[in-house]
Amino acid sequence: MDVVLQPGTVTGLVYDPLFLEHSISGHPENAARLEAIVAELRPSGLWDRMTPVMAEPVDLELLARVHDPAYIARVAAISARGGGFLDSDTYLVRASYDAARLAAGGAAKLTRGVLRGELRNGIALVRPPGHHAERRRGMGFCLFNNIAVAAQAALDEFGLERVLIFDWDVHHGNGTQDIFYDSPQVMFMSTHQYPHYPGTGDWREAGAGEGSGFTVNLPLPVGVGDAGFARLFDEIVAPIAERFAPQLILVSAGYDAHWRDPLAGLHLSLRGYWRLAKGLIALADRLCSGRIVVVLEGGYDLEVLALGVADTCRALLGDDAPGADTIGPTEWPEPSLDRLTNALRSRHLK
Asked: What confidence score (pLDDT) does residue 9 get?
């Protein structure tokens, strides 16, 4: 059954100062990331062109449909006693539980606004990030899986049957995959460096049970950049998305696949990110009346992050051109993707 939803006309923006309070000095995932984004969006005028959406803490009943209640309680308890670590990479401070609930709730509220037709599309500038958070554990800087909560809200509250989550972070979204691995209602597609943290995301990981075929991993060797991403989008991503016919597209947007990011080795440029964003928006226009929501994930070169988010906002707003790319492309040649494209075509496009 197709759900008839009327498209909106404006771009929504989720942001809250509480997201800055989840931060520790010296950690790559800290408040400076959002501060750099805001410092780019406000003077450029992009901030004022978007409609603010006030984040609200995620309802605990909805959160418990995505994460195990015992895990939620553990995050709350660690924050309540002043903070600590879930693992060597993933910290909490006193404000972290509240910030994480607000981040997940903000992503869900933005998605509701798009599905109600109050907004055409939107971007959630939230922290802590979420795509590594599995059903029963957080990891990789992530506490609650913001985009999974948004998808679950769309399924439960609006009767959607087909939600596409596209993850362009350089690290595999193992948490999102874990949560929806056996679901035919959520198609999870991920471009990521492989092998790299967290070690998951082989192309053979394609879903289980009723969800078989609804996980599409595009594991990329070091050095893949604009040409490789463009080829994969045209030959693999777009045809699979068209076959799935989503009623909503959600994007886990990490800007760490850029060639200058310090934590990885893919070679996208800002122009490559622009083309990726425009391509997904065009798919949303064609397949689901423009309903697309972008949720911030990684990105650890602050200039790249700020400029990349700004261009994503321009794309959502319908601008014809990105901002100036003051960084430019890499000059390194890209590896061949023939074997990967053949394998993916055989697995998913037979």
From this structure: 79
Domain contains 1: no
Alpha helices (H) along the chain: 32-44, 46-49, 60-63, 69-80, 96-115, 146-158, 174-180, 226-232, 238-244, 270-287, 302-317, 338-348
Q: What is the DSSP string of 174-221?
A: HHHHHHHTT-SSEEEEEEEESS-TTS---TT----GGGTT-EEEEEE-
Q: Domains in the chain: how many in total?
A: 1
CATH code, 310: 3.40.800.20
Asked if 270 and 307 count as a contact pair (C-beta separation under 8 A), the reply is: yes
What whole-number distance in Å separates Cα of residue 285 and Cα of residue 86? 40
57: helix, coil or strand? coil
Report the predicted TM-score, pTM, of the whole model to 2 decimal places: 0.97
pLDDT tens figures, 239-259: 999 999 999 999 999 999 999
Would 146 be classed as within a structural domain?
no
Residue 62 lies in a domain: no
DSSP per residue, 133-154: --SS--BTTBSS-HHHHHHHHH
Report yes or no on 69 lying in a domain. Answer: no
**Choice among 67, 131, 132, 348 that is catalytic:** 132
| pLDDT tens figures, 165-187 | 999 999 999 999 999 999 999 99
Q: What is the maximal distance between C-alpha atoms in the chain? A: 53
Range of the domain at 273: 11-52+117-133+159-348
pLDDT band at 5 (very low <50, low <70, confident <90, very high): low
**CB neighbours of residue 28 within 10 Å:** 16
Q: Is 132 one of the annotated active-site residues of the chain?
A: yes
Q: Tokens for 311? A: 């261009």
pLDDT tens digits, 27-81: 999 999 999 999 999 999 999 999 999 999 999 999 999 999 999 999 999 999 9
